Amino acid sequence: MGISLNYIEKDSKKIFYRKNGDENRNAMIFIHGLAGDSRFFHNQLKYFGERFKTIAIDLPGHGRSKIHLNQSLELYSKAISEIAATENIKDYILIAHSMGGAVALEHLKEHQERVKAIILVSTAAQLPIEDKIVNEAQENFEVFFHKTLSLIFNKKAGLFIIAARKQIDEEEKAIIINDLLLCKNSDYRAIVPAIKIPALLIANRYDKIIPCEATEHMHRQLQNSKFVVFDQRGHIPFFENSEEFNRVVDEFIASLPEKQHSL
C-alpha cells in the first residue's frame, strides 16, 4: 500500500490529506506549520506507514485544501477531528510542527482523551511572532517571504524554495499573513501544565524561527515529556534530517505504555 491523496468535504469545501498504512493499525496524524502542507511529511508517511496508519493533513487554506471564510486555529483543529472520524480513527498519536503545535494544543483543549501521545516539533506554547514581523509581511510580502525561507531551510531547500517563489498567489499570501496573526495572538501557556499524555519535544539547536530554548521551556512545563535537540540549523528537522528524526520518534513510541502503543 502506498501513499494516497484523499479528501473530505465540509461546508462545500474540500480538505485534503495524504494517507499511508494499514487500516487496522494504530494511527499517527501529522500537522504542518505555517506556509506548509502535507508533502513535507512524505518521509514520515513512507517510513511509519509500514507499521501505522499515517495521516498528513493539508490544513484548510493550505496545500490542496480550499480556503474557508474564517480561518482559525479552531477550524484547523476541527479538520483533525473530521478526518479522524472519516477514517474511523478513535485515538491517535499527534505530530505537529511550528504553527501546527498551536493547532495541536488547541486540539488538546477538547480532545486530550483521544490523543495517546503528542510530538511537538520546533514550536512553543506561545509562538514568538512580533508585530514587526506581521507588519513586514503586510507591507512587503516578497521581502518577508524570501527572508523567511532562507531561515526555514538549511540544507535541502532546493526545489521547495524555487516552487514556493514561483507558485505563491494572492490568496496564499493572505493565508500566510492571517496565520501569522493567529500565531501572534495564540497563547497556550496556561494549558500546557495540565497536559498529562506522554510528550516528545524536538528542536534544532540553531533554529532562527522558533528558538530551541522556547521549545525546551515548554518541555519543562509538561508533566510527562522528553526533549531532544539536534545540533542543526533550520526549522524543519523532520524534512531535512528525516532519518534521525524518525529514529527518535521510533524510540519514543517504543517507550510508551502498552495501553498507548502496540505494534
Describe the protein's architecture and organization:
- This protein has 263 residues and is of the alpha/beta class.
- The protein has one domain (4-127, 187-260): 3-Layer(aba) Sandwich (Rossmann fold), CATH 3.40.50.1820.
- Helix content is 41%, strand content 21%.
- The protein has helices spanning 42-48, 73-86, 99-111, 131-139, 141-152, 158-167, 170-185, 212-221, 237-240, 242-255, and strands spanning 4-10, 13-20, 27-31, 53-57, 92-97, 115-121, 199-206, 225-233.
- An 8-stranded mixed beta sheet has the order 1-2-4-3-5-6-7-8, with helices on both faces.
- β1 and β2 (13-20) form a beta hairpin.
- α4 packs across α5 and α4 (131-139) packs antiparallel against α7 (170-185).
- The mean pLDDT is 92.
Provide the CATH topology: Rossmann fold
Architecture (CATH level 2) name: 3-Layer(aba) Sandwich
Helix content: 40-55%
How confident is the prediction overall: mean pLDDT?
92
Supply the helix-strand structural class. Answer: alpha/beta
What is the radius of gyration computed over CA atoms, rounded to a whole number of angstroms? 17 Å
The ordered H/E elements are EEEHEHEHEHHHHEHEHH
Strand order of the largest sheet: 1-2-4-3-5-6-7-8
Strand content: 15-25%
Number of strands: 8
Largest sheet: 8 strands, mixed
Number of helical segments with 4 or more residues: 10
Number of domains: 1
